[in-house]
Amino acid sequence: MTLNEKIQSDFKEAFKAKEEMRVSTLRLLLASIKNREVEKRTKLSKTEPIEKLDELSKLNDEEIIGVIFIEVKRRKEAALQFTQGGRAELAKKEDEENRILTAYLPEQMSEDEIRKIVAAVIKETGVSDVKDIGRLMGALMPRVKGKADGGMVNKIVREELEK
């Protein structure tokens, strides 16, 4: 079962169980996935034959995880804004949506695991200065993509390079 099929199945179950929060959150997620598929289809339409567009424009699990990460980030930012604005009830709603969405993400790496990978990549690339952070991040991100928050990875990389 693909991730998209699982999300659609969970949406149907939540709909039948009348779980309003899950239904609305998963509906928004499915809409975001569909929008990304349309974007992909539009790009592919310039190079691929029309007959293959339906199949080629479907998102794989990795691309769907990317969409979920974007949605989680939006929820975190919105919750922070609501908290700063004194709107605790709306912040709580965003946090609940965030909790629902993170259930579809792969298990996230701990800070220690990220530090070990960062140290290994620093050794491999020979980067020792913050000026070369782009080269280091380029080598590092494929290893942690989908398993670690980019902001946390960036913070750890900067800490390690400043040692």
Automatic annotation (TrEMBL):
Pfam families: YqeY. It comes from the Bacteria. SUPFAM superfamilies: GatB/YqeY motif. One of its GO terms (molecular function) is carbon-nitrogen ligase activity, with glutamine as amido-N-donor. This is Aspartyl-tRNA amidotransferase. It comes from Candidatus Portnoybacteria bacterium RBG_13_41_18.
